[in-house]
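Thread amino acids onto this structure.
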């Protein structure tokens, strides 16, 4: 049935998304990501220069946009509100899981720093450069005119 505010293409897309929930999400988010990442990959410029950085960030937003888009497509405003509530309510996770997340994150970072030191990629396992917090300019390779 075609509703007056939506055309037949919308209804066909909605029916397909409802029938294939596990396939729709990866297709949308990977398609969106590579749509914006391919120009960066195919260019000779660094990803940290403009406009490559913009394309990189737009592509990186693809899981969020795909999730919100599919929620809106399949369930409307009610589904989007439910998804937002589940994503933003930090109380849903018990304190034990917060501890696991924190210690896994720290352990993983330390392990990667150790591997980088062992492979000779870094001169010290924890090379902390505090000045980058106050002057992050060196992290971004700006083009000079």
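Threaded sequence (145 positions):
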């Amino acid at each position: 049935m075609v509703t007056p505010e939506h055309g037949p293409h919308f209804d066909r897309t909605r029916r397909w998304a409802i029938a294939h929930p596990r396939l729709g999400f990866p297709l949308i988010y990977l398609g969106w990501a590579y749509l914006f990442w391919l120009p960066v990959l195919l260019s000779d410029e660094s990803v940290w220069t403009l406009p490559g950085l913009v394309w990189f960030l737009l592509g990186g937003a693809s899981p969020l946009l795909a999730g919100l888009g599919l929620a809106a497509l399949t369930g409307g405003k009610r589904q989007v509100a439910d998804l937002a509530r589940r994503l933003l309510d930090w109380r849903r996770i018990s304190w034990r899981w917060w501890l696991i997340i924190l210690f896994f994150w720290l352990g993983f970072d330390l392990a990667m720093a150790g591997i980088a030191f062992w492979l000779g990629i870094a001169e010290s396992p924890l090379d902390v450069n505090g000045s980058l917090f106050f002057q992050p300019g060196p992290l971004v390779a700006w083009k000079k005119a």
